[in-house]
């Protein structure tokens, strides 16, 4: 889905609209709350019908950000920028 995404060790902003990039997060699923060395961004506890408890944990390394459109927040922004900057298309044969 986001195969154009590019990753940064600082918080980048879209070359077209200036919107800031988002944190590049990982998601873990487990029976216990997250206990690793990444920053816990979000954690959701889920209680199953049989009484089992599980956690969905979203973590961030504290450094990595991404822009889903590479140097742009979205592919729409990338296309808008390209259309502003590219030379006119040639006439087809
Ligand atoms: Zn943008």
Structural descriptors:
mainly beta, 1 helix, binds zinc ion, 93 residues
Description:
Helices cover 12% and strands 39% of the residues. The two termini are 35 Å apart. It has one domain (6-85). The radius of gyration is 20 Å and the shape is elongated. The chain is built from one helix and four strands, in the order ββββα. It is mainly beta and 93 residues long. The model has no long low-confidence stretch (mean pLDDT 96). The chain has one helix at residues 75-85, and strands at residues 6-8, 22-30, 39-47, 53-67.
> Distance between termini?
35 Å
Tally the helices: what do you get? 1
- Poorly predicted sequence stretches spanning 5 or more consecutive residues: none
User: Helical proportion?
Assistant: 10-25%
The radius of gyration over CA amounts to 20 Å
The distinct ligands, each listed once, are:
zinc ion
Number of domains: 1
Total strands: 4
Largest sheet, strands/sense/barrel: 4 strands, antiparallel
Mean pLDDT equals 96
State the order of secondary-structure elements, H for helix, E for strand: EEEEH
Structural class: mainly beta
